[in-house]
Amino acid sequence: MAMSESPDRFTLADLLRLLSESAGVPEGIDLEAEDVVDTPFYRLGYDSLALLQVTGRLKREYGLMLPDTIVADAPTPRALLTVIAHARAA
Model's pTM, two decimal places? Predict the structure, then answer.
C-alpha cells in the first residue's frame, strides 16, 4: 500500500498521486502549481468518473468509505482532503 510518509495523514501529494494513477494528468495541467489545492476538479480536467475512481481506490487501499455524493460535496482537492481527514478520524 503506497501512502504518505506518515500513515496517520493523507496528504495532497497522496490525493494527486491517486488522481494521476486513476485518471492520468490532463494535458496542460500543472498538478504542482501552488493553487492546485483550491482549484475545482473540473478546472483540473477531472470529471465525476475520475473522482469516483479515486473514491474506489480510497476504499480499497485505505479502507475509507466515502459516499458517492462526494463528487458534488467536495469540488476541490482541499475539500476532498477535509472529507478524507474526517473519514479517517471516525
Answer: 0.84
